Every structure is written in structure tokens, then in C-alpha cells.
């Protein structure tokens, strides 16, 4: 038990957390003493009080639930489509020859530039959020999957031929396990990308969720609540990434991709 506690303590970035605490204390000191003259920069205690008001009204919970649902749905679709396309690109040379240039062109188009187009086509609804967030989240998982499959050691393919594995069995028993660390990294990037795009879409396309909460509090000149929404967005991103790191560590123990990840 003590060994497990010590191991978990080593994973916690204590210095990093001390910097966060010191930054909040400095923020409180600067605003409280009047050194920061901006009326739109509230003190941390004011932000906490505003968050309490949002929680008591139930508005914050609704906004968090909406943004979380859009993020998870978009991430799931993006991972399914991205892994499928990444595998096809890496394993089917003819498909790669015909479509790789198209994918390279599409992934360079800024998703934000497509949001007005999506709004005109599908209107201001959650489906539009999901579509644009999925589109942006596909590319990290697609690229990482294709790269991971191409990086599989030739010796593993020789093992598959020696045991006379079929293509399906080679994919299931050899290729996917070898490429899994890269796929998981792509999934982490896809989830964070989906969250960012969901929040932006809520600002520009669909008047719901954390993004719309940021806009309405900014327009209503309520800086404490606006900062509260911004902090909640950051906390959501942090915990989503943390959950994915822990899930990856459990499914891929000892993987170098997560050996140095710290909380």
C-alpha cells in the first residue's frame, strides 16, 4: 500500500501545482490591492462566488452537460472514422494514391472557417456542433493511426506470414496491437480538439453550452461569471486529458508514450 502511495505521489507534479497556487495568490493580491486597475479583472474570490451562483441556479450544470455530450459524441465518431480511414490509407496503396492528397487538402482548411457554412446548411442546432467538432477531431486520430500502422516492424509481418495468418487475423493480432500506442495518442488529441471546437461552435453556431455562457456573460458585462466559465472550460479539458492518460496507462502498461505524463 505504501509503495502504491509513493508511486502515485511521484507522478504528481508538485512544483507545477505550487506554481498554480502561487499564481492564484498573486492574482488575488494584485486585484485586492488595486494594482490591477481593470474593472473587468475580478479577484479569484469573486470568481468563486460567481461560480457558486451559477451552480445554485443550475445553469452551469446544464451548460457543462451539453458541452460534454457534444464532445463525447464527436470524439466517438471521429475515433471510429479516423481509425478506419487511417488503417485503409496505410494498408491499401491504391486508396492512399487516390485520396491522400484530398485528405491533406481538407485537413488544412480551418474548421472555424467552415462554421458559417455549416450554420447555413444545418442551422443552429446540436447536430451542427457535432458535425464541425467531428470534422476537426478526425484528423489527429487519422494521421496517428496511419503513422502507427506504417511504423509496424517488418519482423512482425514476417511472423504473421510464418504462422500463415489471414489478413483479418494479421490486422487483429499483429498490426492493431503494435499501432495501439499511436492510436491512443491520436484519440487523446481528438478528444481535446473536439472540446475546443464544441466550445467555439457554441459561440458562433448554437446558442447553448459553455461557449454560449462565455458569450452571454461577456455581453452582459459580468466578468466574474465570464472568468468562471473560462476556468470551467480549462478544468474540463484537463480532466478529460487526465482520464484518457489513466485509461491509456491501464490498457498499455509500460508504454513509452505515457511514461512521462504527469498530473
Structure keywords:
263 residues, mainly alpha, MetI-like fold
How would you characterize the overall build of this protein?
There is one protein chain. This protein is mainly α. The protein has one domain: Orthogonal Bundle (MetI-like fold), CATH 1.10.3720. Helices cover 82% and strands 0% of the residues. It contains 11 helices and no strands. The protein is elongated, with a radius of gyration of 22 Å. The protein starts with a helix and ends in a 12-residue tail after the last helix.
In short:
With 263 residues, this protein is mostly helical. It has helices spanning 2-11, 14-32, 44-57, 59-91, 93-107, 111-122, 126-150, 154-162, 167-204, 209-219, 223-251.
Count of alpha and pi helical runs: 11
Instruction: Quote the CATH topology.
Output: MetI-like fold
Number of strands: 0
Helical coverage, percent range: over 70%
What is the average per-residue confidence, as pLDDT, rounded to a whole number? 84
Coarse morphology: elongated
What number of structural domains do the residues give? 1
Ends apart, CA distance between termini: 20 Å
Low-confidence stretches: none
**Secondary structural class:** mainly alpha
User: How many strands, which pairing sense, and closed or not: the largest β-sheet?
Assistant: none
Order of helices and strands: HHHHHHHHHHH
| CATH homologous superfamily identity | MetI-like
User: Beta fraction of the residues?
Assistant: under 5%
Q: What's the CATH architecture name?
A: Orthogonal Bundle
CATH class label: Mainly Alpha
